[in-house]
Amino acid sequence: MSTWRSKLASGRYARIAALPMRAGQVGSHLAHEAINSGKWLGRSREYTNYTYNLSPLNLEHLAWWVVAVSGASISDSRQWVSECLQDQEMQSYVLDLTRRSNRVGLADLEVRVSRRAGWYALIRALRPSFVVETGTDKGLGSVVIQSALMRNGHGSLLTVDINPDSGYLLGGEYGEGVEAVIGDSIATLTDLDRRVDFFVHDSDHSREHEVAEYAAIAPHLSENAVVLSDNSHVTDALPLWAELRGWNFLHFQEQPLDHWYPGAGIGAAWMSGAIKD
Questions:
Q1: Among 78, 123, 153, 216, which is most exposed with the fewest C-beta within 10 angstroms?
Q2: Cα distance between residue 147 and residue 83, in whole Å
Q3: Please, what's the b/e burial string for 113-127 (b: 16 or more CB within 10 A of its CB; e: otherwise)?
Q4: Three-class SS of residue 224?
Q5: Contact 144, 84 (CB under 8 A)
Q6: HEC string of 177-210?
Q7: Among 187, 211, 193, which residue's Cα sits nearest to residue 201?
Q8: Are strands 265-270 and 248-253 parallel, antiparallel or unpaired?
Q9: What's the pLDDT tens digit per position in 26-62?
Q10: pTM, to two decimals
């Protein structure tokens, strides 16, 4: 049998002979995706900014990504990622605000922060004094950021979105001290009068707008600033920006657990040697 397979694999009909096996592999993949998609259509209410859990291996990769960007130890990084994912107080708060929101029909009643646990861990590691986020949406990322700042015991957040209905999750202690701006992100960033230690681009994901945000925020960045793009799986805006400045760049790609969406990515840019002790 082994000899026969060897001859077939090296023969002129090898491609045809392998077709049934290849078709079976594709069919198995498509069936798995169809099952996950069907479950999501039946259970989820979301139509954009999908939330999901990450696979255990992907969470380990996320922890090591945080280590590479921040210089923290892997034990601390794992602890911070776990701290975010297991924060029952934050989850109860988000669920309560979601249930009372007029957008509850389009939101799932389960808190899944996915890659935002990486935002959280970086903020815990770097302890920024001033964080700026563009693209508030419902405010889940803002709550995660604020939770990390609260754990650190210092730091403030400015979040901006052009949608007047954004930020419905910001309230109570998770909204205390948070400056939520409704308006154009470019104008808001241009007019900043404080040094920014941590910047998250998560607004309009066109390449042109992303590039414009980096140009607007650049003069306001502190020496130890870290810049994140929640769109680096789509555009090359941040790696090119980092290269032009002589900064480092590193990307993390999500692997959602039992979800049809293939996942998004976080890009991080930081100055060489700018890691805090």
A1: 153
A2: 10
A3: bbbbbbbbbbbbbbb
A4: strand
A5: yes
A6: CCEEEECCHHHHHHCCCCCEEEEEECCCCCHHHH
A7: 211
A8: antiparallel
A9: 999 899 889 989 999 999 999 888 999 999 999 999 9
A10: 0.91
